[in-house]
Specification:
The structure holds two protein chains of two kinds.
Chain A lengths: L4 E3 L2 E4 L5 E6 L6 E8 L3 E9 L2 E5 L6 E5 L5 E5 L8 E8 L10 E2 L3 E5 L1
Parallel strand pairs in A: 2-11
Antiparallel strand pairs in A: 1-3, 3-8, 4-5, 4-9, 5-6, 7-8, 9-10, 9-11
Chain B lengths: L2 E3 L4 E5 L4 E3 L2 E3 L5 E8 L6 E7 L6 E3 L2 E6 L4 E6 L8 E9 L7 E2 L3 E6 L1
Parallel strand pairs in B: 2-12
Antiparallel strand pairs in B: 1-4, 3-9, 5-6, 5-10, 7-8, 8-9, 10-11, 10-12
The chains are: A mainly beta, B mainly beta.
């Protein structure tokens, strides 16, 4: 069974640009979550999607957005990039939605560098 | 406030040594879930174990064991007879009930096992 796939693996952008990251969950998984990982702040929850609806959102500005498609694939978008957005963005999938005891399956992430 | 503290930033051991990774959490919720994840150099987080707040039974699984103590709000993880392949960053995480997949991660402990 294929794992969680994230594309691209690496991305370099300049300040002010926007970026779209993609995530394909494990087949059959309907919940997709996004996390940002930085050396300073560590791992922080961005949002969770289930059935094409955002179910939960972390404490990030509105420049961070996402969506989920009918096949459960998800994209996240960051507009007006800032230097501080440089991070590893991790996507995770799980079988059910909203279950706090659900184990997450993570992708290898997209490393975003903002110059 | 909900918080996870991993006081050990880095640990270095020699193969076959036992190593314990510490985790202390803070939450006012009576129902919550605790997790350990491992992040190898490839980037993806790998699920190791979960515990709910009502299950203080400690467990041994192969070379891994966990010690959950509600009285001290600790959820420590021990690797017995460490191996080079255990080298990774280990994260402890808290998920309050009804928080969906919004895990609260500690800052992680980097474990280096040398031969």
């Amino acid at each position: 069974k294929a794992g969680v796939t994230q594309t691209p693996r690496y991305l370099i952008k300049t300040r002010g640009q926007q970026v779209t990251l993609s995530c394909s969950p494990i087949s059959g998984h309907r919940s997709v979550s996004w996390y940002q990982q930085t050396p300073g702040q560590g791992l922080q929850f961005l949002f969770e999607y289930f059935s094409e609806t955002q179910r939960n959102k972390g404490n990030f500005p509105g420049r961070f957005s996402g969506r989920q498609f009918s096949n459960s694939r998800s994209e996240m978008n960051v507009s007006t990039l800032e230097l501080g957005d440089s991070a590893l963005y991790l996507c995770a999938s799980s079988l059910v939605q909203g279950a706090s005891n659900e184990k997450l399956f993570f992708g290898s992430g997209t490393q975003l560098s903002v110059l | 406030a909900q918080k996870v503290t991993q006081a050990q930033t880095e640990i270095s051991v020699v193969e076959k040594e036992d190593v314990t990774l510490d985790c202390v959490y803070e939450t006012r919720d009576t129902t919550y879930y605790l997790f350990w994840y491992k992040q190898p150099p490839s980037g993806e987080l790998v699920f190791l174990i979960r515990r709910n707040s009502f299950d203080e039974q400690n467990e041994i699984s192969g070379r891994y064991s966990w010690n959950f103590q509600k009285s001290t709000s600790s959820f420590n993880f021990t690797i017995t007879a460490s191996q080079v392949v255990d080298s990774a960053v280990y994260f402890c995480a808290l998920n309050p009930n009804h928080a969906g997949t919004a895990l609260i991660f500690g800052k992680g402990t980097t474990l280096s096992v040398s031969s």
